[in-house]
UniProtKB/TrEMBL annotation:
<comment type="similarity">
    <text>Belongs to the NadC/ModD family.</text>
</comment>
<comment type="function">
    <text>Involved in the catabolism of quinolinic acid (QA).</text>
</comment>
<dbReference type="InterPro" id="IPR027277">
    <property type="entry name" value="NadC/ModD"/>
</dbReference>
<dbReference type="GO" id="GO:0009435">
    <property type="term" value="P:NAD+ biosynthetic process"/>
</dbReference>
<feature type="binding site">
    <location>
        <position position="147"/>
    </location>
    <ligand>
        <name>substrate</name>
    </ligand>
</feature>
<feature type="domain" description="Quinolinate phosphoribosyl transferase C-terminal">
    <location>
        <begin position="102"/>
        <end position="271"/>
    </location>
</feature>
<feature type="binding site">
    <location>
        <position position="208"/>
    </location>
    <ligand>
        <name>substrate</name>
    </ligand>
</feature>
<dbReference type="InterPro" id="IPR004393">
    <property type="entry name" value="NadC"/>
</dbReference>
<dbReference type="InterPro" id="IPR022412">
    <property type="entry name" value="Quinolinate_PRibosylTrfase_N"/>
</dbReference>
<feature type="binding site">
    <location>
        <position position="187"/>
    </location>
    <ligand>
        <name>substrate</name>
    </ligand>
</feature>
<feature type="binding site">
    <location>
        <begin position="236"/>
        <end position="238"/>
    </location>
    <ligand>
        <name>substrate</name>
    </ligand>
</feature>
<protein>
    <recommendedName>
        <fullName>Nicotinate-nucleotide pyrophosphorylase [carboxylating]</fullName>
        <ecNumber>2.4.2.19</ecNumber>
    </recommendedName>
</protein>
<feature type="binding site">
    <location>
        <position position="90"/>
    </location>
    <ligand>
        <name>substrate</name>
    </ligand>
</feature>
<comment type="pathway">
    <text>Cofactor biosynthesis; NAD(+) biosynthesis; nicotinate D-ribonucleotide from quinolinate: step 1/1.</text>
</comment>
<comment type="subunit">
    <text>Hexamer formed by 3 homodimers.</text>
</comment>
<feature type="binding site">
    <location>
        <begin position="257"/>
        <end position="259"/>
    </location>
    <ligand>
        <name>substrate</name>
    </ligand>
</feature>
<dbReference type="InterPro" id="IPR037128">
    <property type="entry name" value="Quinolinate_PRibosylTase_N_sf"/>
</dbReference>
Amino acid sequence: MDKIIEYMLAEDEGFGDVTSNAVVDEGKIVSASIISKDEGILAGSNIIRDIFEEKGIKVLFYLTDGSEIHKNDIIMYLKGDARTILLLERTVLNLMMRMSGVASAANHYVNLVKDYDVKIAGTRKTSPAIAKFDKMALRIGGADTHRFSLGDMVLIKDNHIASVGDPLETLLKAKKNVSFSKKIEIEVESIGDAIDCVLNKADIVMLDNMGKNDVEKVINELNRLNIRENSLIEVSGGITEDNILDFVGLGVDIISLGALTHSSRSLNFSLNFEKS
């Protein structure tokens, strides 16, 4: 079992489930179901199935990740030891509800731009320890994961630039010191810096917190200089469902949204025993 999941289960169990041990007979076998009280995209069901099965609970039916779910849909049927199911209940529900919320948010934004050639991406603004589950959920929802960790690519941000002194100098330093196998992305805040970095062929140039007018100026200048193909253009910061099409229509390549993971709403699921 994944070490993070083992930690989650151990943290919830503490020194034992005193309630279940007090009122549920040892060896009691029950049937149960996990039911959706929400609508969205399901994520995490494959992980939850594996947890139950590893703990000896039979999974008789389950919906797969990526399924569209509605209120009162049955996500999973279970049969097994009542105390074990109760011990796992809160942890598995919490994880699947969060992952489904992230997947649903990602899917919503992906659908908003489905008629355009643009990628919706997440960021590393996730919850500590469960970042990889957030990233899985982004993928299930149809979004790009961006980086999983710091080692995936070079992403030069404002503090990196502050430590060197200048965006272009920082970019050139990275190009000199990093293997050809790693893509290099740089975050810029001005039109001039964006042009300089595209001229020097950064793989990706992120226009950070730029308004629509400034993004449009960057794109127009790149087209005028005939260097638009040098770099992918990513926009990030201040993008919402109300203004996303304004940016998409300018011809950007990537839109990254931290809100997909740091502000998405968990879906609501419940686990119910059949009465004896």
